[in-house]
């Protein structure tokens, strides 16, 4: 047996229409899983589904911030062996310009939505014994801080803290909970209105590996935590940042 395989597993991946989520959905399918691909954009999600190797995959067009829609979707989902919570948003704004609306938006997407999705799946008994839950957090907040990134960092710190406590609460059910903490990853999410390409290039040059992570490199870590190869890991924070948090 190959403990890294995802054969016979059904994995739900949020944020599957782009970036880390899309790379994770593809890798899980390539490793033998049936993928439940969740995302807000129907057309981009359809592109993801069409690209997945294997068969038996399904797409669920869903806004995870809409609790009523989430309730309806959860009831129709198959039994799951794993969840990769990849959906999230970035936010760059100096703290003195932050307002309550911005905080609510970022926390709703990055913290409350993934946490409540897992909560609802557990209550609906959609997670099988031996399941693995993975949250995509960030080194920003749990490990390092950057100017103008307070709200995003706070949301990821909250997510990591919740996951660690969740791991203890669910260990008796033989469900594992872990976090992947990426460094800056080359996705559309880092290209916001107030960040130029020149700024990104200068930031990348300052990193130990002189580049940002690729989405597939983060997906590799997520797939590892979803697989039986990580069967004795729960409550962990797997840092994938090219060494940026140790310099």
Description:
- The protein has 247 residues and is an alpha/beta fold.
- It has a single domain (10-241), classed as NAD(P)-binding Rossmann-like Domain (Rossmann fold, 3-Layer(aba) Sandwich).
- It contains 7 helices and 7 strands, in the order βαβαβαβαβαβααβ.
- It has a 7-stranded parallel β-sheet, sandwiched between helices.
- β5, α5 (150-170) and β6 (176-182) form a beta-alpha-beta unit.
- α3 (67-76) packs parallel to α4.
- The longest helix has 24 residues, at 100-123.
- The relative contact order is 0.16.
- The mean pLDDT is 96.
* CATH superfamily annotation: NAD(P)-binding Rossmann-like Domain
Shape: globular
CATH class: Alpha Beta
Provide the structure class.
Answer: alpha/beta
CATH architecture, by name, is 3-Layer(aba) Sandwich
Q: Separation of termini?
A: 39 Å
Helix content: 25-40%
Gyration radius over CA: 17 Å
Instruction: Please give the domain count.
Output: 1
Q: With helices defined by DSSP (H or I, 4 residues minimum), what is the helix count?
A: 7
* Beta-strand residue fraction: 15-25%
Enter the CATH topology name. Answer: Rossmann fold
Mean pLDDT: 96
């Amino acid at each position: 047996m190959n403990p890294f395989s995802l054969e016979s597993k059904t994995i739900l991946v949020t944020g599957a229409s782009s970036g880390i989520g899309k790379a994770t959905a593809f890798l899980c399918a390539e490793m033998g899983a049936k993928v439940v691909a969740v995302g807000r954009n129907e057309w981009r999600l359809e592109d993801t589904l069409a690209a997945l190797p294997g068969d038996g995959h399904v797409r669920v067009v869903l806004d995870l911030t809409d609790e009523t829609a989430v309730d309806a979707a959860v009831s129709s989902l198959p039994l799951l062996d794993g969840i990769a919570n990849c959906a999230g948003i970035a936010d760059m704004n100096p703290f003195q310009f932050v307002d309550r609306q911005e905080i609510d938006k970022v926390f709703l997407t990055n913290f409350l939505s993934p946490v409540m999705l897992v909560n609802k799946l557990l209550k609906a008994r959609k997670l099988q014994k031996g399941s693995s839950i993975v949250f995509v957090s960030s080194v920003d907040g749990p490990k390092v801080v950057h100017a103008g990134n307070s709200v995003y960092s706070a949301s990821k710190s909250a997510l990591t803290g919740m996951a660690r406590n969740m791991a203890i609460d669910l260990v008796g059910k033989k469900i594992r909970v872990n976090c992947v903490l990426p460094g800056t990853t080359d996705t559309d999410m880092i290209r916001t209105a107030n960040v130029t390409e020149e700024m990104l290039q200068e930031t990348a040059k300052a990193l130990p590996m002189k580049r940002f992570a690729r989405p597939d490199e983060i997906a590799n870590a997520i797939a590892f935590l979803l697989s039986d190869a990580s069967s004795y890991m729960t409550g962990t924070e797997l840092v994938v940042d090219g060494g940026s948090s140790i310099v």
